[in-house]
Amino acid sequence: KQAEKAVHQKKEQSKTKCRKARRRHINLVAEFNRRQRKNIWLETHIWHAKRFHMVKKWGYCLGDSPTEKSYRACYRAMTKHCLLQDLSYYCCLELTGRENELLKQLARICSIDTGLTFEEACCLSGRFEGSLYLYRADRYPEDMLGPVTFIWKPRDGSENRQLWIWMHPALKQDVLRELKAVFQCSEPEEIYIPEPITTTIQEEKQIDVVLSLGKKRKKEDKEGEKAVPVKKIIGDGTRDPFQSYSWISQSTGIVISDRTMEILRYRLIGPLSHSVLTETLKAASLQTV
Question: Where is each Pop1 N-terminal domain found (predicted)?
Fold first, then answer.
């Protein structure tokens, strides 16, 4: 009897959730938000999910291998055209403060013996991206943290500078812990207050209204198509959504901010990469007040 009752309830439930209702934009976005609570999706997730075998790593859902044999096409794109890769799962830490104070403390976690440092002239100007290996403070050549890339925001005449450091998500917590210790940034400047509970309730109500009796949405609905939930990224794959994401040092004023999933990162490979960028990106007109 229980089995028959379960089958009967399943049939009734399937009737109320027709594919057309499930595929409405208002329900689709709500469903996508629900499905990426544990593993964050990249902006290009839908495109990859249709063409790649997806794996769950480092708190993200990433494309691992293509479903079709596209190796020759990728090789052709790299050698003759342009191949784009989504590296947005890489973590970004932002340092803000006086330039001399930043360089003084950053010199403790890297060494000139390994190559470039944060003080390299071409990188310090903000024109080029640099790469180096980070170590625990004053521990070189022991206790290596891992490789990172960095880029300075070009100077604007002020002594305050901005530095973005990119690293693999597996290194993020170790590097962040070391930077907070070096700059003595223990006080949370901002506390991230997500909206997972209220957002979820609203989305479920919207789905229930549309799918409750299998009826189509009424034309006299006041919100209508405007009632579309906005895509929300709750935290990221390497941070608990209830943790703070920015810390400040009371002694030096240095601020460390976690910009993961706020700044997207793409890699273009191939001889036509530059021409693709010039055709895609257009300089905005400078407006002065």
Answer: 4-97
